[in-house]
Automatic annotation (TrEMBL):
Record GO terms (molecular function): abscisic acid binding; protein phosphatase inhibitor activity; signaling receptor activity
Single GO biological process annotation from the record: abscisic acid-activated signaling pathway
Bet v I/Major latex protein domain location: 31-154
Family label: Belongs to the BetVI family.
Pfam families: Bet_v_1 (PF00407)
Top-rank lineage group of the source organism: Eukaryota
Protein name as catalogued: Bet v I/Major latex protein domain-containing protein
Organism: Liquidambar formosana (Formosan gum)
Keywords: Alkaloid metabolism
Record GO cellular component, one term: cytoplasm
Family annotation (InterPro entries): Bet_v_I/MLP, Plant_def-hormone_signal, START-like_dom_sf
Length: 159
């Protein structure tokens, strides 16, 4: 079974380049560690420098339903079009019968001072585990976008 879900989050008063500066490399993981440790968990770099091929481990906080961790590999970073893709390589949904779990983050100029973050999850799951597809959600990505919006808006005001 294959599927895809998407959501869009607007970042008010922050240009796309500023948002991409966070999402395009390792800054996002560092800010998740700093701003969302009890919601998303901890992000550790396993290998790489933030470019394609980088592997990060996301360890969810205790009490979070589901698998305790997941490891993702950065498979695409397009600085010109502000697109980043990661694929799950271990843990998380892999433990629930998923062959593919890909996250695509697109940072889109809405106008000169606001941005849209489009989060898309593509997945393939074994037919016998098709019921697990209902667990796929963009909610954590939306939460991250909201926190990054607030962080960047405050950073811009204080600059």
């Amino acid at each position: 079974m294959k599927g895809q879900i998407s959501s869009e989050s607007e970042v008010i008063s922050v240009p796309a380049g500023m948002v991409w500066d966070v999402y395009g490399g390792l800054k996002l993981g560092k800010l998740v560690d700093q701003l969302l440790p009890h919601v998303i968990g901890r992000v550790d770099v396993v290998e790489g420098d933030g470019g394609v091929g980088t592997v990060v481990k996301v360890t969810h906080p205790p009490g979070t339903p589901g698998i305790g961790y997941m490891m993702e590999r950065f498979t695409k970073i397009d600085d010109q079009n502000h697109i980043k893709e990661t694929e799950l390589v271990e843990g998380g949904f892999k433990e629930l019968g998923f062959h593919l779990y890909r996250i695509r983050l697109e940072i889109i100029d809405k106008d000169t001072n606001s941005t849209v973050i489009r989060s898309t999850i593509e997945y393939e799951v074994e037919d016998e585990f098709a019921g697990n597809a209902s667990l796929v959600t963009t909610k954590p990505l939306e939460t991250i976008a909201q926190v990054i919006d607030k962080y960047l808006s405050e950073k811009k005001i204080n600059a």
